[in-house]
């Protein structure tokens, strides 16, 4: 805009000079032309060069502004892609943590299952001795002194009591042999509570009796199971014919 104004003024001045030249004698006009026009031509050349430089600079400026806008656009696109990548990375990290948690849970479950598989509890014992056990005037725990099997050492041959080493489902059996002339009463006890019983009445025509019972029990660690002989009843203990057995079916 400034160059346009200057150019307009120069043209205006040239017109004024041209008008003045009409009233000037030929000789003077020739002298003036020789002294003034070379300067004007030089100025116009310089002005044209400056105008061209300005045009070039403006073009370069516009190109620079365009490239700057393009760079800003690419930068925004890069920032957007970076944010998207960060979001996907966070999602991947979250999924990875979830997978690690599930993996740890699975490993713990496998270890627990392996631990359960390794836990073996089995016992079997006989009353032993010679002759009969009882009768006693009170209920009495039968101590099965002859241990045949005691994997896990959960049965005590000194007290006749089985103590559950782990929580789980257990299976118990108890059998007896006794004379028919006296009553028989055996009860499986869990923590002082009666569970199942085997019983036989006195008969005059029966020389001997056999009987027993069995049961599945869910036990907690430390629960106690034993067999109680009822008051004024008896069983025979010789030849390992009165037994108490049990084993762990499954941990829970």
TrEMBL record:
Coiled-coil residues are: 61-116
Keyword field: Coiled coil, Secreted, Signal
A GO cellular component annotated for this chain's UniProt record is:
extracellular region
The yes or no answer to whether the keyword Secreted is present is yes
Q: Where in the cell is it found?
A: Secreted
What's a Pfam family in this record?
A: C1q
Q: Where is the C1q domain?
A: 118-252
The signal peptide, as residue positions, is 1-18
Its protein name is C1q domain-containing protein
Species per Swiss-Prot/TrEMBL record: Dicentrarchus labrax
């Amino acid at each position: 805009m400034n160059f346009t104004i200057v150019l307009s003024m120069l043209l205006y001045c040239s017109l004024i000079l041209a008008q003045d030249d009409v009233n000037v004698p030929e000789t003077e006009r020739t002298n003036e032309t020789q002294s003034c026009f070379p300067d004007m031509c030089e100025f116009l050349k310089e002005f044209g060069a400056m105008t061209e430089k300005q045009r070039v600079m403006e073009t370069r400026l516009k190109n620079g502004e365009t490239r700057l806008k393009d760079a800003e656009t690419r930068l925004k696109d890069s920032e957007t892609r970076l944010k998207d990548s960060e979001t996907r990375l966070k999602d991947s990290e979250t999924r990875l943590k979830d997978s690690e948690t599930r993996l740890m849970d699975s490993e713990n479950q496998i270890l627990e299952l392996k631990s359960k598989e390794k836990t073996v509890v089995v016992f079997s014992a006989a009353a032993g001795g010679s002759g009969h056990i009882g009768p006693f005037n009170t209920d009495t725990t039968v101590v099965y002194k002859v241990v045949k099997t005691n994997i896990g050492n959960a049965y005590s041959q000194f007290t006749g009591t089985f103590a559950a080493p782990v929580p789980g489902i257990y299976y118990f059996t108890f059998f007896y042999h006794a004379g028919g002339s006296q009553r028989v009463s055996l009860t499986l006890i869990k923590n002082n509570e009666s569970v199942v019983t085997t019983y036989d009445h006195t008969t005059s025509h029966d020389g001997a009796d056999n009987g027993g019972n069995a049961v599945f029990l869910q036990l907690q660690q430390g629960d106690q199971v034993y067999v109680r002989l009822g008051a004024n009843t008896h069983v025979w203990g010789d030849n390992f014919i009165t037994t108490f057995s049990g084993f762990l079916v499954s941990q829970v």
